[in-house]
Specification:
With about 475 residues, the protein is an alpha+beta fold. About 35% of the residues lie in helices and about 20% in strands.
Length: about 475
């Protein structure tokens, strides 16, 4: 880097305007991390390098000018939209970084009903977009728990997935076209077409780049008909995760596509369904679509489950009630912060994936290792998980762990608890050939396993960094390990 902190700020003000460059100390501290360090944040402790500024970006040309300036002077940039990330991807790992905030680029550009696609700027909040579409009888089909907070650029950048993915797919299945800006200032647009065979699918250079290759400014995603009147809910109690995984597999292999297909182990089930879970596993489905499709899907699920005598049905209204309270808005985030401050009890997740032949072993091995090897196991208050996204060849496992923070300062909590627990889950998954991350992105706290995750394919990914960000100014330490 060739400029001082003060010079960086002055140059940014010239490019973006003084009102768009934030240098308030409290805001800079909050912008130095994401929810991976929420315990320290709640206690007002900040250990990452404090950024030089947060730039409130207004349009694509401005993004281009800011990135070109930063590239010339080798200034680290951290792209951000809704700031709901959980894996450290928004941490400012280098001194005098600049946080590139696109939340003000929040126009829904076009709802194209004829072609069943919608185009939006990167800072459009998903819930805002969904509400506009649903008012006209449509939906994106994308509904992550963070829907009230997350914005379109970040959702695409992290390869996010929604709670209805078994029917609609993940964000990469929905994206039609994109606009993005690369570090040298070049603006790239990938046109909106239903499919093409003109070489490798270049959308995937951008989708999932986590701000480590480019800045996403605009996205076009598919739309679907919204028909909630046809939703059908199903719930069951059963004794074993192994049986539950087998049922999920049968549903997928037989070609049914419920929008929700979830399996909770007893520990995790008791967190969500204590009023009926009875210390058993809980299996949940929702069927949706046209009336005929919804009924056929529901009937198929019931027939499959009926072959497993240990499954006990529960009142569908209980599942519908759970469904209506899935998402986390600002009020739930604040309630969690208040609870942590009051009790010192933390809750985190690590999501992985595996094929049908290994997913139960991944689940069992992880729990066994944590219980036997984690040196502070006595502080764990809940250890379990659920599967929430299934495919014809496998499923994901969402490990959930709560613990009481005991005898350590806020800045020590990660090293004592979160990082080693996260690491054990990643390591056990990789041993059995699964993926260490299913949908939250690598961020900065799984990056040490990135080469192991990709194996002999790692040079392909590394070549993208070399080609598109040769000066290494994009989100240092995310996806690509720092030297």
């Amino acid at each position: 880097m060739t400029l001082s902190r003060e010079a960086i700020v002055e140059q940014l003000k010239e490019i973006a305007g003084p009102q768009q460059v934030i240098t308030d100390e409290a805001e800079l501290k909050r912008s130095s991390h994401d929810r991976f360090r929420k315990y320290a944040d709640i206690h007002g402790v900040y250990t990452m390098p404090i950024p030089a500024a947060v730039v409130k970006l207004q349009h694509t040309q401005q993004v281009s000018e800011v990135l070109a300036f930063m590239n010339r002077h080798q200034i680290n940039g951290v792209p951000r939209t809704g700031a709901s990330a959980t894996e450290g991807g928004l941490e400012t790992a280098a001194p005098n970084s600049v946080v590139l905030d696109g939340s003000g680029m929040n126009k829904v550009i076009k709802i194209d009903i004829e072609n069943m696609q919608v185009t939006a700027q990167c800072g459009v909040t998903l819930e805002v977009l969904e509400n506009q579409l649903r008012a006209q009888g449509y939906t994106t089909g994308h509904s992550p728990q963070s829907k009230p907070l997350a914005q379109m650029g970040g959702l695409v950048a992290t390869r996010s997935i929604g709670q209805f993915s078994t029917l609609y797919g993940a964000i990469e299945d929905m994206v039609v076209g994109l606009e993005a800006v690369f570090p040298n200032g070049d603006i790239t647009r990938i046109k909106n077409v239903p499919r093409r065979a003109a070489g490798p699918d270049i959308r995937h250079v951008i989708i999932g780049n986590e701000g480590a290759l480019c800045y996403i400014t605009e996205v076009t995603v598919k739309m679907f008909k919204y028909q909630p009147e046809n939703n059908r809910f199903y719930g069951y109690l059963l004794d074993s995760m192994k049986t539950g995984f087998a049922i999920l597999r049968e549903v997928m292999v037989d070609g049914y596509r419920p929008s929700i297909a979830r399996l909770y182990d007893p520990e995790d089930a008791n967190q969500h369904f204590s009023h009926f879970s009875k210390d058993k596993c809980v299996l949940i489905f929702m069927a949706e679509g046209t009336r005929g499709i919804s009924e056929a899907t529901g009937n198929g699920i019931e027939a499959i489950v009926a072959q497993h005598r240990e499954c006990q049905p529960v009142d569908s209204k209980l599942i519908q009630s759970w469904f209506e309270n899935l998402n986390w808005g600002p009020e739930k985030v604040q309630a969690e912060r208040d609870f942590i401050m009051r009790t010192g009890n933390m809750g985190f997740t690590t999501e992985v994936s595996g094929d049908w032949s290994t997913i139960n072993a991944i689940y069992e091995n992880v729990l066994k290792r944590i219980r036997n090897e984690f040196p502070h196991a006595q502080d764990i208050t809940m250890l379990g998980g659920h599967s929430s996204h299934s495919y014809i060849n496998g499923t994901n496992m969402y490990f959930v762990y709560d613990y009481n923070v005991v005898d350590c300062r806020p800045e020590e909590e990660m090293a004592k608890y979160h990082v080693p627990l996260n690491g054990m889950i990643v390591e056990e998954t990789l041993k059995l050939g699964g993926s260490m991350v299913h949908h939250h992105g690598i961020g900065k706290h799984r990056v040490q396993w990135a080469k192991q995750e990709h194996g002999s394919a790692w040079p392909i990914l590394q070549a993208l960094k070399t080609a598109f960000d040769p000066k290494g100014i994009m989100n240092k330490g995310t996806i690509f390990p720092q030297e």
